[in-house]
Design goal:
single chain, alpha/beta, four-stranded mixed sheet, 36% helix, globular
């Protein structure tokens, strides 16, 4: 049987929200990935990182108060990838599957003229006091009022290119399980020969879709907290979507059926991936239903 090349996007449930939770969660996620590998999938994994970034940002803030001469440099891709790759390696070995698992720290180019930079919306870090919020604004950062106080907000530009895509493709073609573009990747702006970090976050589902496009994957699988995407969500007319077409998906997007910070980027990523190739499939389902989704037995399947 021909093996399928798939990109699997892991959501928050797959990683937990604290370091002890993460240790336990990645073991469960490793079993899911191992199921897919055993079923005939060659896998590239992307993952979310919002809770982890929040923890790092809080720790850096507190550290910076005591050591003003140190620069904050939050990095979640490395330590999440470390836990994931070791858990997956161990689970595969327990099943007698000998595959190397690697994590690639991934930079993702964004457009400096993306309108998102004029409209930052993504909350990061802990709740701030008014004094702390004022200090952040004096540094040139954006802050917004919340129910509990104030929070920093950053832009969420769309991904344009994946810098390390050749390395990811090479490892995937060599039969490795690859973890890449964690948290949507590190947003960078090309400036001549250099890449400069951008004050932004990238929606990991959009990066996952771009990754699947650039790898010419057979399947994009986005794992979330529900088995199916629904329309008319939260109403008496709520209806789970099973097999739908790209045209159906675009119609529901145009109707505003999906939350801007929840299902919308997942559906947009699926549509973009499917429109740029033939014979492809996108699946959105829960992590517990990943294998059944891969086999076409459950989830929202878009073709």
């Amino acid at each position: 049987m021909k093996r399928k090349k798939i990109v699997v996007a892991l959501g928050h449930k797959a990683l937990g929200t604290t370091l002890p939770e993460q240790k336990a969660a990645v073991k469960r996620s490793a079993k899911v990935i191992a199921d897919l590998v055993a079923a005939g999938a060659d896998v590239v994994i992307t993952h979310s990182n919002a809770p982890q970034v929040g923890m790092i940002h809080m720790a850096m803030n507190e550290f910076g108060k005591m050591h003003t001469d140190y620069s904050a440099a939050p990095m979640s891709e490395g330590y999440i990838g470390y836990d994931l790759q070791n858990a997956i390696r161990a689970e595969l070995l327990r099943r007698g599957i000998f595959k190397t698992t690697s994590t690639i720290l991934t930079q993702v180019e964004v457009d400096p003229y993306d309108d998102a930079f004029n409209n930052p919306v993504k909350l990061i870090g802990r709740t701030l006091t008014k004094e702390e919020a004022d200090a952040e604004e004096e540094k040139g950062n954006y802050v917004t009022k919340t129910e509990d106080g104030y929070r920093r907000i950053v832009a969420a530009p769309k991904p344009q290119d994946i810098v390390e895509i050749d390395s990811i493709r090479l490892l995937l073609d060599a039969g490795q399980v690859v973890i890449a573009a964690g948290g949507g990747g590190i947003p960078v702006l090309p400036q001549n020969e250099e890449l400069k970090g951008a004050s932004a976050v990238i929606e990991k589902d959009l990066t996952s879709g771009l990754m699947a496009e650039m790898l010419n994957a057979d399947m994009l699988m986005i794992l979330t907290s529900v088995e199916n995407v629904s329309i008319n969500y939260g109403t008496p007319d709520e209806k789970p979507l099973e097999h739908i077409t790209v045209a159906d998906a675009k119609k529901y997007i145009a109707e505003g059926q999906f939350g801007e910070n929840s299902m919308l980027p997942k559906m947009e990523a699926a549509v973009s991936f499917l429109e740029k190739g033939i014979g492809r499939t996108a699946v959105i389902t829960s992590i517990d239903s990943a294998l059944a989704g891969f086999q076409g037995k459950t989830g929202t399947i878009i073709e």
